[in-house]
Structure formats: structure tokens, C-alpha cells
Amino acid sequence: MYILFCAESAPPTPQTTDTPPPSWQPLANHGEAGKYCCLCGAWFNNPLMAQQHYEGKKHKRNAARARLLEQLAGSLDANESTGLRRSYSCSVCNVVLNSIEQYHAHLQGSKHQNNLKQHQQ
């Protein structure tokens, strides 16, 4: 999996593909060697460094979190859905969770489901 490069003017939006980027294009202010993973905020000096990053644990974890965040975007507050955060809050249950994975598990849990039913009545 490879992450395509971000535009300098746009907020970082990961775009995943199963194939490598078609070419190594220079990014503004970083020259031809400056390659960037929008998802992790990592710069690469050469294609081998980028490939190692994309195959690494940190990138795979961030990619999985980004996919989960995209799936949960409808249930997050507007300020939480803009990117990966250090905490996620559930206003229905009045709890704060430390990760998107915990937030997802919380939404599936029986306490949240019961509180949601009471909140909707």
C-alpha cells in the first residue's frame, strides 16, 4: 500500500492505493528528494526509505486508524472528525476515550447502546 502525496494547499488527506506512486515528483520547497507521507507526516530521501516506511508498523497502524476514522466520521463531532486525535468524546455517555479503537469499541458496547436508547426517548 502506498500513500499518494498531499497538495501543499490542501489539508492532509490520505489516499491509499495498492500500487506505488507512478513517479517521484518534487514537492514545493523540498526539491526532488523530498517525498512525504501525509498520513504519518514523514519525509523520505529516496524511494527505498519510502517503501520501508509504507511497509512498517507505524504506517500500517496509522492507515488502519485513518480507515476506522473514515468509517466513524458520521458519529464523531465535527472537530473530532478532522483527523486523528489523542482523545475522543461520547456526548451521550459523557466519557472521553484515548483512541479511535477505544471509541469504536465503546460505540458497539451495551452501556452506550442503552444510553443511546434513553437519550433518543
TrEMBL record:
GO molecular-function terms, A-Z: nucleic acid binding; zinc ion binding
PROSITE patterns in UniProt: ZINC_FINGER_C2H2_1
Keyword terms, alphabetized: Metal-binding, Nucleus, Repeat, Zinc, Zinc-finger
Claim: Iron-sulfur is one of the keywords in the record: no
Cited SUPFAM superfamilies: beta-beta-alpha zinc fingers
The UniProt record lists the keyword Hydrolase: no
Any one GO CC term of the record: nucleus
Pfam families: zf-C2H2_jaz (PF12171), zf-met (PF12874)
Coiled coil, from the record: none
Residues covered by the C2H2-type domain: 90-112
InterPro entries the UniProt entry points to: Matrin/U1-like-C_Znf_C2H2, ZN346_ZMAT4, Znf_C2H2_jaz, Znf_C2H2_sf, Znf_C2H2_type
Domain of life, source organism: Eukaryota
Compartments, record wording: Nucleus
Main location: nucleus
Name of the featured protein: C2H2-type domain-containing protein
